[in-house]
Amino acid sequence: MNTSEEVGDLAKIFNSLMNLTRRFIFRVLCVGPIPNHISFIMDGNRRFAKKHNLKELDAGHRAGFVSVTYVLQYCKEIGVPYVTLYAFGVDNFKREPEEVKCVMDLMLEKVELTIEQAISGNLKGLRVIFAGDLNSLNERLRAAAQRLMEVTEDNRGLVVVVCVAYSTSHEILHAVRESCVRKCDDGNGPAVLEVNDIEECMYTSVVPDPDLVIRTGGRDRLSNFMTWQTSRSLLHTTGALWPELGLWHLVWAILKFQRMQDYLQKKQKLD
Ligand code: IPE
Ligand code: MG
């Protein structure tokens, strides 16, 4: 056996040990309540690139996509049914056109890859839903996003909502307009809109409200992300940049959610 084969074997053993340890940690974690829906505000990609002196424009965002893969895998293993990812905000379109293009191209690359995985049966039950103003995406990305939603719509595993071209203000505006069309244009004259009418027309109405919001990048704000849906959610922020988010950050956030259970449940009953 030569040195590279030995290194390969050691890496395999190390990986198996890590997998076992992770599964053990998740078993212990699952003794307590697990959030039904976790939302992630993925912040800090560019700072990650800067910190590591990565020069390519897409380097930080590329690292961010790797993090998405791990985080989804962990959520699936823990048994979280719904995950929302804040991938691109309406305001992010105000960034330099080169950067916007770069993120859109990267997203297209990942969406097309995921379509291939879904078709070849390698997605293990994952269902992907895009939420936001999809009309503001370029045609190719919009079509790919649509296709990915179609090819995964019968999957019954983890539901992942990808928020692109999304902001709550835009979502509410869209929902109010849509509910007016549905309710006021039905030929029965003027109608009174109820909260339910608006909620039904929200982009994210396909999933329950988040129980836990995790924001990376060290900023303690919601940045126009699901502000309507998170009045009873626990907000956990971490200084870790999105590409740095690891197993322990996630475990720590869920432990905090478990510690706060009594308080969160009391709030749900009172509101
Ligand atoms: C989040 O990371 C990713 C997107 C909004 C596309 P940023 O790009 O905001 O990175 P920082 O916060 O500037 O480091
Ligand atoms: Mg940022």
Give the helices and strands as they follow along the chain.
Answer: HEHHEHEHEHHEEHH
Low-pLDDT residue spans:
none
CATH hierarchy: architecture of the largest domain: 3-Layer(aba) Sandwich
Instruction: Give the count of helical stretches.
Output: 9
Distance between the termini: 66 Å
Strand arrangement, major sheet:
3-4-2-1-5-6
Q: What do the pLDDT scores average to?
A: 94
Structural class: alpha/beta
β-sheet strand percentage:
5-15%
> What does the main sheet amount to?
6 strands, parallel
Number of distinct beta strands: 6
**What is the CATH level 1 assignment of the largest domain?**
Alpha Beta
Hetero compounds: 3-methylbut-3-enyl trihydrogen diphosphate, magnesium ion
CATH superfamily caption of the largest domain = Decaprenyl diphosphate synthase-like
Radius of gyration: 20 Å
Number of domains: 2
Q: What's the CATH topology name of the largest domain?
A: Undecaprenyl pyrophosphate synthetase
Helix content: 40-55%
- The geometry reads as globular
Family: Belongs to the UPP synthase family.
InterPro entries: UPP_synth-like, UPP_synth-like_CS, UPP_synth-like_sf
Cofactor: Mg(2+)
GO cellular component, one term: endoplasmic reticulum
Which characteristics define this entry?
Undecaprenyl pyrophosphate synthetase, 51% helix, 2 domains, 6 strands, binds magnesium ion, 271 residues, 9 helices, six-stranded parallel sheet, binds 3-methylbut-3-enyl trihydrogen diphosphate
